[in-house]
Amino acid sequence: MCAPASAAPAPATTTSPGAAAAGWLAQQFSDSSNHPAPDGDHFNFPNSTFYWSGLTASSIFALAATKTGGDKIDAAIAYMEQNVASDASIGNGPAPGPFDGSVATAALAAIVAGADATDFGGVDLLKTLKDDECTAVSFPANDNDFTTPTCPAIGAGNNTFSSVTESLIVTVEARAGGAHAPSAQALDYFLSLQCADGGFTVQTTPAGCTSDVDATAYAAAALVALGGQQTALGKAAAWLATQRNAAGYWVAQGGPNVDSTGLAASALDAAGADTSTSRAWLASQQVSTGPTVGAGASRGALKFQGAFDASSSIKATADGLLGLVRGASLATLTSAGATPGTAVLALAAPRIASASVVQGAKQTVTGFGFSAKETVSAVLHSATVSLGSVSANAWGTAVVTFTVPKTLAAGTHTVVLTGATSGLSSTATFTVTAAVVAPSTPTLPTPTLPAPTLPAPTLPAPAGSGTQGLANSGLNGQQALAFALIGLACVLAGAGALYFGRRRRT
Q1: Which burial class, exposed, middle or buried, applies to 340 when counting CB atoms under 10 A from its CB (0-12, 13-18, 19+)?
Q2: CA within 20 to 30 Å of 250's CA: 206, 273, 277, 393, which one?
């Protein structure tokens, strides 16, 4: 491991699914380089540099729902204000603008963010919507007809291509109220888009009416904003409820869909229905793996169709948050009271190889959620011991292996991992047990025995010396007698053999 590196300031963290999703979303706003950046203020269409006002507005709504990211809301609404005229083709472009879907989207974003919709980038958005209300049905003659507007019905918005546009116009005008309230013609046209089963069609005419989840969710928000539409709202809410899976989600685009579930749950919540199952399902769709901040961050986002996608998860998170957070209806949503910044999903506790280790043994701690490739330092507590640092991999995973000091007291200890770039920290806890010391074997002195003292041999004296031979043989009396008897036996045996030998010859 390397020497520890100094860490960046720690970001605010949270365990709230909604606040964490907002924290991830705030990181995805693009700056002038058209790449995600801390000072980002807008979104572009995927893989392009073309400004996407709809997603920018949806992200403002999502941050407002969580009452976080007030600074990001201010930056995004300022960008929308600077670009509203060109985006909605107000007073410019070859097409017969303006496009009221873009006008209504900008107006609703302004209302939610606390901006002035009557002077937004020099444009009175509310007056523009009134002036653009269709007074006759018309459609361009061909693709080269840039003078005839698309007006599907009297009372519809100019260049309306989806019922969602009309729902947004009605929501804006109902929230603005007074002279800006929807006209009778606009209201009649809007209500005509409700199908017999209670849902709303996504088409701009009621012919062949087929209910759609997203279209009905937007329409329900408009009905709440209008007020006094309990019958129509009740039918729309009832139809949405019949389309909800028992697990709490709605199906769209071939599978369980976070976008649609967020919009539909928000609509039902505004209608007074219980959406706890849907909120729980949305929370289960939060990404818990990968980096938390920086390039390639994924933790905190909401999945798209069951998996994280760097592009599609942005829209899924923005729309999903409206259903994940209670009281986030487009009919009443406001950013008032939003805190300036956002928080990111707190790191989970690292994984430890052994819950209990002996003094002097190896231990491995694996931390998750750091920034890709960042340096992660490790410090052992309670006695503060620096364990050096390692580099996280591309998924933000850092693996630290170390030897527990032999001098570390037995008991509970922690290892704190801290990212040098992200400033994020996580803590692992484990137990240290005392090493068993085997008793030493005593070293005994080698015994030194005295050499034996042998009696000097006594040789028999020569014959005639006048000394008795047996007396000095070194044998005691009994031993001498035994040897004498053996000798006598041998003599007698020899004599017997001689006698019998002579008898045979005779």
Answers
A1: exposed
A2: 206
Q: What is the mean pLDDT of the chain?
A: 89
Domain 351-433 -> CATH class:
mainly beta
2 or 255, higher pLDDT: 255
Q: Name the DSSP letter for residue 456.
A: P
- Inter-axis angle of helices 100-113 and 53-66, nearest 10: 20
pLDDT in tens, 86-131: 999 987 765 677 999 999 999 999 999 999 999 999 999 999 999 9
**SS3 sequence, 298-361?**
CCCCECECCECCCCHHHHHHHHHHHHHCCCCCCCCCCCCCCCCCCCEECCCCCEECCCEEECCC
* Domain residue limits, the chain: 17-342, 351-433
Which pair of structure tokens corresponds to residue 130? Answer: 């009134």
Cα separations in angstroms, 463 against 471, 472, 484? 14, 13, 19
**Backbone dihedral region of 44: left (phi > 0), alpha (psi from -120 to 50 degrees) or beta?**
beta
User: Does the global pTM surpass 0.90?
Assistant: no
Give the number of other CB atoms < 10 A from CB of residue 253. 11
Q: Pick from 38, 19, 41: which is nearest to 421 by CA? A: 38
Gyration radius (Cα) of the chain, Å: 48
- Residue 297 contacts residue 370 (beta carbons within 8 Å): no
Q: Encoding tokens for residue 367? A: 């931390």
Residue 165 CA to residue 149 CA, distance in Å, equals 15
Tens of pLDDT, residues 275-305: 999 999 999 999 999 999 998 999 999 999 9
DSSP at 408: S
Give the C-alpha separation, 55 to 297, whole Å. Answer: 19
Q: Is the pLDDT of residue 464 over 70?
A: no
The answer to whether domain 17-342 has CATH 2.40.30.60 is no
Q: Which two tokens stand for residue 42?
A: 């807008």
Residue 165, number of CB atoms within 10 A of its CB = 23
- So what's the pLDDT on residue 443? 64
Burial profile 65-85: b = 16 or more Cβ within 10 angstroms, e = fewer? bbbbbbbbbbbbbebbbebbb
CB count within 10 Å of CB 214 equals 22
Return the structure tokens found at 338: 């939003």
